[in-house]
Design a protein that fits this description.
heterodimer; A: 255 residues; Rossmann fold; six-stranded mixed β-sheet; four-stranded antiparallel β-sheet; 10 strands; globular; disordered N terminus; B: 438 residues; alpha+beta; 2 domains; two-stranded antiparallel ribbon; 16 strands; 47% helix; elongated
Chain lengths: 255, 438
Amino acid sequence: MALEIPVDSTTTTTNAAGPNPGEVIVTDNLWKTYVMGDQQVNALRGVNLRIRHSEYVAIMGPSGSGKSTLMNLIGCLDSPSQGRYWLNGHDVSQLNDDELARIRNKEIGFVFQTFNLLARATSLHNVELPLIYNGTPTAERTARAKEVLESVGLGSRMDHKPNELSGGQRQRVAIARALVNRPSIILADEPTGNLDSKTSVEIMALFQELHAKGNTIVLVTHEPDIAEYANRIVTIRDGVVAGDQLSTRNRNQQP
Amino acid sequence: MFFRLLMESFRRQRRRKLLAGIAILLGTTAVTAMLALATTIGDRIHKELAVYGANIVVYPKTDLLDVKIGGVDVKPATGGSYLKESDLAKLRTIFWGNNITGISPELPVQVDATAPSGETLHANGLGLWFDHALTEDAHAQRMGAPALHPWWKLQGIWPHDSDAVVGAGLAAKWKLRIGDRLPVTLSTANGVTSGDARSFALRVSGIVSTGDKTEEQILLPLAMAQTISGLPGAVWRVEVSARTKPEDAFARKDPETLSPKDHDRWYCSPYANSIAFQIREAIPGAQAEQVRRVEQSEGTVLQRISGLMWLVSAAALLAAGFAVSAAMATAILERRGEIGLMRSLGASRSAIALLFYAETGLLAVFAGVVGYLLGSGLAAWLGARIFAGDGGAAEAVLNPVLLPVVVALALAVSIAGSTPSIRSALRMDPSAILRADA
C-alpha cells in the first residue's frame, strides 16, 4: 500500500537534495513566472513536493491558485522559470522540447476533462497513438492497445469511434490511452468534469482500481469530493503549497 | 506509420484543403502558363519580328564603309570585293548555326534592258536566292529573299534560270507584264563597251511590290546575275536572320577584352554580336554586322514581355501564398486540440511541424501537378491566340522540364504560406488548448 506523509505544509521544506529512493516526483523551489506586457506574474512561488511511487495524490486549489501551472510542470508540458524537478529520478527541469516530448511519452499518461480523443479514429487507434509516437512495432502496438482496452472494460468497443461511445466510455478510452505506455505517473486533469455523478463514481472507481494495481496517480481537481478519492490531498493557493495532508477517507482508514 | 498518420490527417478538413488546393492550383496554372510562354516567346517574337528583315548583314571586309546621305545608303553597288557563294554553306556550321533561320545573298548588277516599247533603258538588277537549299538534303531548309522579306507581294511566280521578277514601279514605268520578254545586257556603266556585251533574254515571271528601292529593280536568280556580270560564285552582301538572345551589356563587350572564361560564355550565348563574330570566323574576308534596329526591337519587346510575365507569375504565387496562409490558419485553429493532444502524448514540436508540412506538401504536389497540366493547356491556348498564324496550337503542349519547377514553386509557396500558422500552433500552450477544447 502507498506510503502517506501527513504534513500540514511543505512550503518551507527544501528538496534540493533531490529524490530519495521510491520517489517518483520531487520538486525543489519550483517557480513559474509569466511576463504579461510589462508585468511579471508569479503563478508558482517556490513549490516543494515529494510524491512516492504508487501514491494516489489529489492536487486541489481554487481557480488561479496555480494548480494548472503545477500540473503543466509535473506533466512536462512546460518548464519552470526557476527550481528543479525530478521525474522518476531524472532532472527534467532543464530539458529541451524534444527531450520533454520523449519524457511525456515514456513517463506520463494524461487523462483530460474533455477526453481529447481523435474524433475520426476508433477506440483502438486512439489508444495506439502514444505507441505510434515512440515507434512501437504494429503488432505489439495493437496487442497492447487491445489488452489495455479490455482492462478498462471496453473489449467490445474497440472499433467504435468516440461519437459512438458514452461520456464514461470515452473517458475509459482516454484512461486506456494513458495506461498503454505503462507510464510512471497518470496525470488526470479534472477527469470527471464532463461526466454525470453516476459516471464520475464509475471512473473514480476505475482510478482506485488502477491505484490498487500499483499505478501512481496525480489527480488535479477543484472538487473536494473527487479529491477525497485520493489518499493524499495537496492544496495549492497563491502559487505555494498551502496544505498537504491525508484525505479524510484515508485518515479514517488509518489504525 | 507516419504515412498512415499523414493520410488520416490529409483526409480531414476537406473543404479547407480544397480551398488551399484551389489557391495553389490557380497560382501554379498561371505560373506554368507564363513559364511555358516565356520559354518559347523568344522564338515566337523572333518569327514575328522576322517580317522586319534580317538581323545580321555580312559584307566583304573591304566594303564596310557606309556612305549615307539623309539616311539613304549611297554606297556604290559594288566596291570591287566579293564574298564567295560557296562559303555561305559554312554559316550553318558555326556554333549557333542552327539558330540561323534565313540567308539571302545579293549581287547587284547594272544592266541595259530593252523595254517592250523598244527603248533601251538603264536598270539596276539584283541577283538573289529565291528558293535555295544550302545542302543536298531533301529536307534542307529553303533559303532566299522571299523568306526574309515576307511582306513582299508577288504577282506570278519567283524566277528560275533565265526568268526575272520586276519591281512593281519599274513594271509600271516600262509597261511590263508577266510573260514579257526582257532582253538585257551588262550596262556600259560597268566599263564594258556595247560591242562586247552579251545579251540575255529574260522572261518576266512575276511582278513584285516591296515598298522600297527594290520596286525599281529587276530581281534575278543569283546565278544569272553572276553570269551577266561575269562574276561566277560572287556575292556582294548577305542578309542573315538568326534567333538571338536579347542584347544586354555583356553582349556589347568586345570579345578581345574578355577573360577566357567570359569569352567562352560570350561566344556560347546566342547574341547577334557573337553570331556575327562566328560568321566572321567562318567566312574569310567577311565582315558581319548586327542590324541594331531589329535586334533592339526584339530585345526591348522580349524584355518588356518577360518583365510582365515575371510580374504576373509573382503576383499569382503571392496570392496563392496568402490564400494558403489563410486556409492553413483556419485549419490549424480548428485542429489546435489535436495539436495539444499530440504534444501531450509525446510528439515533439518538430514531429508535429513535419506532419503539417508533409500534409501541406502533399496538397502542393497534387495541386502543382494539376496546375502544371492546366497551365500547359492555357499556355497552348494563349500561344495560339497571341501568336496567331504562328501555328501556336501545334506547339508542344507539355514541357516536362517545367513540371519539377512548378511543383517546387508550389511546395515553396505552400510551405511559406503555412509556416506562420504552424509556428503559432506550436507556440500554443497544450494544456490550455486541451482544457479549452470541450
